[in-house]
UniProtKB/TrEMBL annotation:
UniProt protein name: LysE family translocator
Keywords annotated in UniProt: Cell membrane, Membrane, Transmembrane, Transmembrane helix
UniProt xrefs under Pfam families: LysE
Membrane topology qualifier: Multi-pass membrane protein
Taxonomic source organism: Sulfurovum zhangzhouensis
Lineage: Bacteria, Pseudomonadati, Campylobacterota, Epsilonproteobacteria, Campylobacterales
Keyword Transmembrane helix: yes
Ranges that cross the membrane: 6-27, 39-62, 68-89, 110-131, 143-165, 177-196
Length: 204
């Protein structure tokens, strides 16, 4: 049962990490220019996951379901997605060889971006709630499942940005420009989809 739980947890972690979403767009975009800060961004996102997990374990997650707090989370997510879309678009003409700052303040900033983007994303909350139900229904070992999940996520936020960063020399400025514009449009799209969901929710 422990091995089965570990494997299932790992596969769930892969399923959570791989799909294209706001945090992965941010990770890939950052990895093109600075690998360590891409990893720090991923660790910030993982910290948000750990926080939601803690709330589930202590039975406090219900206070975030529905109501005004859920509405505020969506508003925060929309605002932050639009902000990141603007920043990535603004960065479209910057050369890949130009470096990010390596000071503590810069590292703290990218960590908080990963943390906040994941924390205010309502889909993160829905994911962890579904994981809790899935683990209970299949009678998996909770600890081994979580170890498997976070192992997969750690591998994703360290290995994928590494491969992206190592391939940056093959990317021309023209391609870089297109990738930045495409990334900013995707982030705008995620934000707009949340607005549509909020409007539907208010009309129900």
């Amino acid at each position: 049962m422990m091995l089965e739980s570990l494997i299932e947890g790992f596969l769930l972690g892969v399923g959570a990490a791989v799909p294209l979403g706001p945090i992965n767009i941010l990770l890939m975009n950052r990895a093109l220019r600075n690998y360590p800060q891409a990893v720090i961004t991923g660790l910030g996102a993982m910290s948000a996951d750990a926080l939601y997990l803690s709330l589930i374990l202590f039975g406090m997650i219900q206070m975030l379901q529905g109501g005004i707090l859920s509405y505020l989370l969506s508003l925060g997510s929309i605002a932050f997605l639009f902000f990141l879309a603007y920043r990535i678009y603004q960065d479209r003409n910057r050369h890949l060889s130009s470096e990010f700052k390596e000071d503590r303040q810069a590292k703290r900033s990218v960590f908080l971006q990963g943390l906040f983007l994941t924390l205010v994303n309502p889909y993160t909350l829905a994911f962890w709630l579904s994981i809790g139900s899935y683990t209970t229904s299949k009678e998996l070992d909770p600890m081994m499942t979580l170890i498997g999940m976070f192992s997969a996520i750690v591998l994703w936020v360290t290995l994928i940005p590494y491969f992206v960063h190592r391939s940056k020399h093959r990317i021309s400025m023209r391609v870089r420009y297109i990738l930045n514009v495409f990334s900013s449009m995707l982030l705008l799209g995620f934000g707009i989809s949340l607005i549509v969901e909020m409007i539907d929710w208010r009309l129900l």
